[in-house]
């Protein structure tokens, strides 16, 4: 395993650990999700270069489009929850109280 692969795997693992253990604010969860998507995007964009496969060159663009949609939806949820609940703490968001 090269140093490049190790860095992508460790970035993804650290961001998933951050998502699992730092569940206080919605913005920190969104940042962890974005760092996971960024590490996956970089790994997917370097994968066709390493394998000399041009058929997978469109995959990073699709991943980037889905990541942008996810970020927009997350920010809309952040603004909506801050307006309704007054903060972005995740313990305030309970679906049973809606």
TrEMBL record:
Transmembrane segments: 6-22, 29-49, 55-80
GO biological process, one term: ATP synthesis coupled electron transport
Keywords: Electron transport, Membrane, Mitochondrion, Mitochondrion inner membrane, NAD, Respiratory chain, Translocase, Transmembrane, Transmembrane helix, Transport, Ubiquinone
Location within or outside the cell: Mitochondrion inner membrane; Mitochondrion membrane
A single cellular component GO annotation: mitochondrial inner membrane
Gene3D superfamilies with a match to the protein in the record: 1.10.287.3510
Principal location listed in the UniProt entry: mitochondrion
Membrane topology according to the record: Multi-pass membrane protein
Alphabetical list of Pfam families matching this protein: Oxidored_q2
UniProt catalytic activity: a ubiquinone + NADH + 5 H(+)(in) = a ubiquinol + NAD(+) + 4 H(+)(out)
EC number(s) given by UniProt: 7.1.1.2
One of the record's GO molecular function terms: oxidoreductase activity, acting on NAD(P)H
InterPro entries: NADH_UbQ_OxRdtase_chain4L/K (IPR001133), NUOK/Mnh_C1-like (IPR039428)
PANTHER family to which the protein is assigned, alphabetical: NADH-UBIQUINONE OXIDOREDUCTASE CHAIN 4L, NADH-UBIQUINONE OXIDOREDUCTASE SUBUNIT ND4L
Function: Core subunit of the mitochondrial membrane respiratory chain NADH dehydrogenase (Complex I) which catalyzes electron transfer from NADH through the respiratory chain, using ubiquinone as an electron acceptor. Part of the enzyme membrane arm which is embedded in the lipid bilayer and involved in proton translocation.
Family under the similarity heading: Belongs to the complex I subunit 4L family.
Record protein name field: NADH-ubiquinone oxidoreductase chain 4L
Organism of this sequence: Numenius tenuirostris (Slender-billed curlew)
